[in-house]
Structures are given as structure tokens and as C-alpha cells.
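Reopening this one. Same input as before:
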Amino acid sequence: MNVLLFDLDGVLVQPLGYRKAIEAVFRHCVRGWGWPEMPPPDEEVIAFYEAHTITSEWDMLPLMLAAVWDAWAAAYGAPPEGALDASHPDQPPPPPDYRAAVLRLSDHLRPGAYPAETALARQAQGGPEAPFPHLPAASPLLRRLLSHTRDVARNRTTRLFQQFALGSAAFAAAYGLPAEVATASFLRQHDRPLLASQARARLQTLLSRGEAVAAAYTARPSNPPRGEPPRPGYSPEAEMALEAARLPDLPLIGFGRLAWLAEHYRLPPEKALLKPAPFHALAAIFAALLDDERAALQRAAAWLLESRPLTKGLPPAMALYGFEDSVAGLRGMAAAAAALREAGMEIAFHPFGIATQPDKIAALRRVGATVMPSINHALAAL
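Same output, byte for byte:
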């Protein structure tokens, strides 16, 4: 059986909505701090973060804003209490170095720990290896920026980002919180499909003939699995991406599916299940094979909790094709393939990296991926 796992952002969808939301939040914050217009981090900076396994905007934005304040502190000293809530028109920061903190962090990033949290913990240790050396080790400003980045009620940067990404009305509906900005959904306005019509037709032919099965494998927020009612705090961003890719019925294992399972089965927090953890990729493989997201999640939970046989009812041999633009996702697939081999399945793993930016190309090649400039090139190579 041929199993195809597709990341969404950078593979099936050009995530222009998220990129525009990064810019919008950055400019909103800079204006609030009273500074002249600053160019937001560009695509080269974002690709650098992704090449170093920082792939979520919920980590990127706080780290980028922390880099701005580190540059400010280098010029003016430690920020005063309440600096994030005040205007500083006479003290604009010098140009920040967005890459320096990432380089100091890269050797300490681990599966199951969010990069923003890791940065905060490393900062608390102080010393020359602190990610933001010009800010105090116990900086209240950094605590506000880098803690609780997955909680829209407690982290303002994440809250603002979700408003621009979802739009004011959808944000209020998803989280039950009032919107601070009036905006349409940047995801619906700006996301663009990367899968060309000819490649989409070929994929759909493969699936309809039974020559392959497929699923989406993404860290994007999502609703609970299909068949479960929507729940407060779940945001349908992965579903929006599948709509943009014109593959709305593709089985999906997103962040919300993992959060639902972690809550329902009292599993470790969803961050411990998220790629590059093998759990995420296993659930996506099962979703592709079973065409049932809830059953796939339950089977992955049984593997994690009870070490039940993974392969009952599955084909004895499988070729796994993974399409990713990040190292973390491919590492998760490789670990899932290893778990299936250990359970007795004959499995061949074929990792494809989708990238055109040099840092990302180099990082993907280091983990053994065949790098292609687009998903269309990758599908044509099968």
C-alpha cells in the first residue's frame, strides 16, 4: 500500500495568510510602543526559523518581538516594568538581530517543548548563552512574551495573531473572547493553493483507483476529529487550508485532533504528541489507511498507552511517502516508520522536502530528503 502524508503550509498551501498575520501583529505592536514604522521580519528570516525547527507562528512572533526588545535593551538598558503596555516614542530600537537567539537556542530545542518556552527557560539560567543577552535573566517582559503561547486568554501576542488569522467574528466564535481588532480572516483572504490542477487530478486519480491513500499531517490548529461536535477553544485553521488546497475531504490530523485526544484519553499534553513526535505521524498514517480520524487517533493512543499491536487489520507492507517543508515533520515520519517496522510491518520510507530557500534545502537534505521546488515536482517524480 502506498501512503502519502502531506504537510499543509509550504506544501499544499502557500500560507500567505499567516505571513500577513505576522506582519500585522508586528506592526500593531510596534505602533503601540510608539516607534516609527519598522519592517517586519521577511521571508528569509521566517525560513531561517523553520530550518531550525521553529515552525509555529505562536513561537516565531514572540521570539521576534523579544529580539526587538533585546536590541532596545542593548541601546537603553533593561526595560522598565510595564514596558509592553507603554509608548516609547523617543527610544526607538536599533535594527534587531532575529537570527542570533535562534542560533543560541538551536541545540536546546527538543520534541515536546515549545521553542518559546525553551527560550524562557534558557533565559532564566542567565549567562552568555541566554537567548537575549541584553535582557535580565528574570525579565517580566520576556515572561509575558514567551509564556503561555498556546493560550489566547493569557498571551496577548497569540491572541492578536489569532484575530488576524481567523478574522474578528470567527475568533470570537472559536474562543468566546471579544476581538480587540476589527479584521477579516487573513487565512481566507490570502492563502493560496500550491497544488496545480494537473497534479491534483493525478492525486485524486491515484486515490480513487485505490493505488494510494493519503492524509494531511499538520501542526495547524483544527477542530476535533470529524464526527465530533465543534468545541470552544478549537480553531478550524487546518480545515481552512484544505479548502484552499481544494482537498476538503482529505483525512486530517491537526493540532486540534491531538488536543481532543489528549483531553479525552488523559494522554500527555498535545505538545508531547505533536510532530516531530512519532505519535502525530502514526495517527496520520492510520487516518490515511482507515479513512477514519477518530479510529486512527484511538489506535495511536492504544499504541502509546498499552503497546497494543499496531498492525492488526493493516496491510503487511507499505511505502510511506512524506511531503514536508520542515525537518521536524520528516523526523516524525521517520520515527513512525521505525515504530511500524518494530511492530512487524515491512515499510519503505521516502521523504520529500519541499523548499527553494537555501537554509531549508540544506536542512532537509541533512535528514535524507529528496528536495523538490514544489509539491507538483514531487508528485511528478513518484
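So the earlier flakiness isn't reproducible anymore. For the record, Residues 16-187 form one domain.
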